[in-house]
Amino acid sequence: MKLKGKIASGLIASALIFPGLLSVMGGQRKLDAEIIGKAGELEIQVLVDRAGFSPGEIDGKSGPNSRKALAAFAKAHRIASGPGARAILLKKLCHGEVRLLVTYTITAEDTAGPFAEVIPEDMIERAELPALFYTSVLEELSEKFHSSPALLQSLNPGASFAAGEQLKVPNVLNSDGTECGYRKTGPQPNGATRVVVTKRTSSLAAFDRRGRVVFYAPVTSGSEHDPLPLGRWRVISVVRNPTYSYNPDLFWDADPQNAKAKVASGPNNPVGTVWIDINKPHYGIHGSPEPGRIGHTESHGCVRLTNWDAANLADLVRKGTEVVFKK
User: Fold this and answer.
1) How far is 145 from 255, CA to CA, in rounded Å?
2) Distances in Å between the alpha carbon of 270 and those of 2, 202, 305?
3) How wide is the angle at C-alpha 296 spanned by C-alphas 290 and 302, nearest 5°?
4) What angle do CA 282, 287, 293 make, to 5 degrees?
5) Taking the alpha carbons of 116, 120, 125, 127 in that order, is the dihedral positive or negative?
6) What is the rounded distance in angstroms from the CA atom of residue 66 to the CA atom of residue 183?
7) Quick check: 32 and 21 in contact, CB under 8 A?
8) Among 281, 325, 320, which residue's Cα sits nearest to residue 2?
9) What string of pLDDT tens digits covers the 327 residues of the chain?
10) Nearest to 311 by CA among 233, 223, 215
11) Cα distances (angstroms) measured from residue 62 to each of 42, 74, 109, 123, 222
């Protein structure tokens, strides 16, 4: 791939509990589900997201992305299973101190668009569009609040998603100003010195110079036909709102009759809203127009994150940051 740059609250109390055991990154011991106690799925997803340990798309359901994010948080804070582990973990996550839902009023800017009626499957047809816009206000706000469209709809039954309408949304942007458990986003003066992508766990972790995890997220990385290029690499550039240069010669499943094409930027661009280029031709770390598939499917060799996680990572890395791809 070659690219060019271009608040009322509500506390959630769910009866759902993480089932089974939590497999911890890097061989740490498994944590029993008792650690979660009575904290519900949605609550855990919001809390780990706020802490900088992304569960990917927040949907209020139990799944591997959430379990891995929670396990990564526990490992980073050296919380092992045993007496008192549950209380320590929940306290670290500010359980009971954070407003999990806040009220958001849809603005005229949110609904102004432009929006795309449909995003074609065919890459050549996509290249004919002026930009790869969101397809609806619902899709736009779902990404803004790191949520699945189905979750926003379930939290707001009957909503039309029109300007002036008030919605209940996950408190991932710290809209109420509660600092407890919240990792500030935006450009970081010190940032990350190393990014590690682990194929086995479909995860990415960014470390600071002291070896501490400053960001974690689920990823989709490589496949049988397009394996992740294992080894050590370096960031050579960070591009926001990239265009996408489609070359069928680089894809095993592409129609060889297709011509090369340039796809305009936008959140539904094939590489999303961020491209982090590395010193391996045609490979990079980037966003995705399909956040619900991150961590669950395979890619054409590159490393995909949700658009919001890619943006957070882009704030942490710079030219020269080490990137490690491992099994």
Assistant:
1) 36
2) 12, 19, 12
3) 70
4) 110
5) positive
6) 17
7) yes
8) 281
9) 433 333 333 333 232 223 222 333 333 334 434 444 446 899 999 999 999 999 999 999 989 999 999 999 999 999 988 788 888 998 999 999 999 999 999 999 999 999 999 999 888 899 999 999 999 999 999 999 999 999 999 999 999 999 999 999 999 998 888 888 888 777 777 789 999 999 999 999 999 999 999 999 999 986 666 788 999 999 999 999 999 987 766 553 445 566 678 899 999 999 999 999 999 988 999 999 999 999 986 655 689 999 999 999 999 999 999 999 999
10) 215
11) 9, 17, 34, 34, 24
77: tokens are: 């804070």
Task: Report the distance separating Cα 218 and Cα 226, nearest Å.
Answer: 19
Please say whether the beta carbons of 237 and 223 come within 8 A: no
Closest CA to 58 of 40, 73, 42, 47: 42
Amino acid at 263: V
Query: Count of residues for the chain?
Result: 327
320, 234 in Cβ contact below 8 A?
A: yes
Matching residue, tokens 């780990």: 48
Give alpha helix (H) positions in the chain.
41-50, 64-76, 85-92, 108-111, 123-126, 137-144, 149-155, 307-314
Would strands 31-32 and 21-22 be described as parallel, antiparallel, or unpaired? antiparallel
Q: Which helix (H) or strand (E) holds 326?
A: strand 322-326
